[in-house]
Amino acid sequence: MTVTAVLPRSSLHLALLDANDPRIDHVLYRDSHLREDIERRYPGKAVYLGREGRLPRNPRGAMRQIAENRAYYGRVREMLEPLGIERLILFLEGEPLERMIADWFEGPIELWEEGLSHYIDLTSPLWYAARGAAQIVSGFYPRGALRRRADRGRMIVRDRFERRNLAWDYPVLAAPEDAVLFIGSPLVDDGILTREQLAAGLAQVARIAGVPLHYLPHPREDRSGLLPMLAGIDNVAMAPDPHGLTRHVTQHGYRAFVAPVSTALLDLGAFDNSLFVPALFGEKRMDQALRSWSANPVKVAADVNEAAAFLSSRKAAPLHQLRAEASPAG
Question: Which CATH code for domain 180-313?
Answer without folding.
Answer: 3.40.50
